Amino acid sequence: MSRAFVKDADEKGEAPPERPVSAQRNLVTPEGLAAIEAELAHAHDAVLAAGDDADAKALAERDLRYWTARRGNAELVPPHAAGEDVRFGATVTVERADGRRQTFRIVGEDEADPAHGTISHVSPLARAMLGKEAGDVVRVGDGDVEIVAIA
């Protein structure tokens, strides 16, 4: 967020906008829960470090509220045991029509990062794959993908 926006909002007597909390179930892996707890600790430290800086304090307090809410509604899902169907926490390899193979782990919303191989359980691809087995073909967007491996 630009400093100019924060200053402008402060001059108008407005607080920075809240970070929206998803209405979806907050399923998390053990790593995801640890990341939420680290963010919560970081936000708490940022509030203390802000001192008299009203802008920094407002942003830190907003983040603290967000991570407190996410920790409060987190539902820890035990690690996925290799099985026959796609579930939360599974690592799934798909093959696209053009022959490309991609591997993703299905995780919680806050820990999802497709560029690093993780997708949210509420993403269209994950939703299409949940409950399916290796060999199944699922429709995603305008194309189909085949599930070739589940770990």
Draw up the topology in text.
Layout: H1 3-11, E1 26-28, H2 30-50, H3 54-72, E2 74-76, E3 91-96, E4 101-107, E5 118-120, H4 124-129, E6 137-140, E7 143-150
Parallel strand pairs: 1-2, 4-5
Antiparallel strand pairs: 3-4, 3-7, 6-7
Helix pairs in contact: 2-3
Give your account of this protein's structure:
- By secondary structure, this protein is of the alpha/beta class.
- It has 2 domains: 74 residues; 60 residues, Chitinase A, domain 3.
- Helix content is 36%, strand content 23%.
- The chain is built from 4 helices and 7 strands; from the N terminus they run αβααββββαββ.
- The strands form 2 sheets. A 5-stranded mixed beta sheet has the order 5-4-3-7-6. It has a two-stranded parallel ribbon with strand order 1-2.
- Helix 2 packs antiparallel against helix 3.
- It is elongated, with a radius of gyration of 19 Å.
- The protein starts with a helix and ends with a strand.
- The model has no long low-confidence stretch (mean pLDDT 91).
